[in-house]
Design brief:
It contains twelve helices and ten strands. The chain is globular. Helices cover 41% and strands 16% of the residues. The chain is α/β, with parallel strands linked by helices and 328 residues long. The strands form two sheets. It has a six-stranded mixed β-sheet with strand order 1-2-10-7-8-9, with helices on both faces. It has a four-stranded parallel β-sheet with strand order 5-4-3-6, sandwiched between helices. The protein binds pyridoxal-5'-phosphate (PLP).
Length: 328
């Protein structure tokens, strides 16, 4: 992804923290009888596209001369920040909800980060880290703008992979919007540089069990943080109070996009459908594919449609064992 260095706000090349990540394959697939371009964002060093954001953010931390960071995450962002800090020799503390998938917590700890397990909700974890962030730099994937300067590179790549053409629709997961808002920034950069002439429609997918953006979009109102939240397999996008909610809704509106929701059964079916074609993705990533399926049912086939596999199946072995057991 650092091939786009001129468009990434790191001043000195010496500060770049990288595993030579990025330029993930964009495969043409036939899903439910239609052609879809699938960006393989699960094939990153830590198993999710969060590495794009972590690479830029941790490079910035190094450029600022800082030695320690804190971050809170339901899993994958914590893994990515911990890995890039390990690579940079920066101390790292990650706050996670107590019910985070054990493999994700193991991965964070293995990179040498200090893990704080916080009881209560995802929002209690966010509160705990804010207190720590009064003294230590907050390398947040949802607040820190440098993270989005990394995730925007996905838009650069997929336009380059399509021969500097902009797709018609991009179907993405949305919780805090790191990929959706990052992509929006990337497409805007490309349009401003005259490399593409249109920004694609951005379609955000949420799990019905936790869908504050969907409801705000439906009602054309602000995000309601107090909506009841149920358990969902899509833990990575179960964000009850998205801090950039207003920005996300604005991006959807500006691109004439939409927000769709998917049920738990649809997430399981999508995971199995994809796996039977040789792709192993985690349930959060399968939620996006369930949304893609919904979209394809009423879309025109001449469009260029792009979607993503956002996280690797090896992240969620326990959940996948349960899904398989239910099948039998
Ligand atoms: C982080 C993540 C998402 C989406 O994240 P938001 O930033 O909350 O919109 C989707 N899938 C996976 C696997 C993730 O790790």
């Amino acid at each position: 992804m650092w091939r786009y260095q001129e468009a990434i706000p790191i001043n000195d090349q010496e500060n770049i923290i990288t595993f030579q990540e990025g330029f993930s394959p964009l495969l043409p697939l036939n899903f439910w009888g239609q052609k879809v371009w699938m960006k393989q964002e699960h094939l990153f060093p830590t198993g999710s596209y969060k590495d794009r954001g972590a690479s830029v953010l941790v490079s910035k931390v190094k450029e600022l001369g800082l030695k320690e960071v804190v971050e809170d995450s339901s899993g994958n962002a914590g893994c990515a920040i911990a890995a890039y800090c390990a690579r940079a020799g920066i101390e790292c503390q990650i706050f996670v909800p107590h019910d985070t998938s054990p493999p994700k917590v193991a991965q964070i700890e293995a990179y040498g980060a200090r893990v704080h397990r916080i009881s209560g909700s995802r929002e209690d974890t966010a509160q705990a880290v804010l207190e720590a962030a009064e003294k230590i730099y907050y390398a947040s994937h949802s607040w820190n703008p440098f993270f989005f300067q990394g995730t925007k590179t996905m838009a650069f790549e997929l336009c380059e992979q399509l021969g500097w053409q902009s797709p018609d629709v991009v179907i993405l997961p949305v919780g805090n919007g790191t990929l959706l808002l990052g992509s929006f920034l990337g497409f805007k950069d490309l349009r401003q540089a005259g490399l593409i002439n249109k920004i694609p429609r951005l379609l955000g997918i949420q799990a019905a069990a936790c869908a504050p953006l969907y409801w705000a979009w439906q009602k054309n109102s602000a995000v309601e943080p107090s909506l009841p939240k149920q358990e969902t397999l899509a833990e990575g996008i179960a964000i009850a109070n998205p801090i950039r909610g207003r920005q996300i809704l604005q991006a959807i509106k500006e691109t004439a996009g939409d927000i769709l929701i998917v049920e738990e059964e649809e997430i399981k079916e999508a995971l199995i459908y994809v796996a039977h074609r040789g792709f192993y993705i985690e349930p959060t990533a399968a939620a996006t594919i369930a949304g893609l399926r919904k979209y394809l049912l009423n879309s025109a086939s001449y469009q260029t449609i792009v979607s993503v596999f956002s996280g690797h199946g090896l992240k969620a072995t326990e959940k996948i064992i349960k899904i398989l057991a239910d099948l039998h």
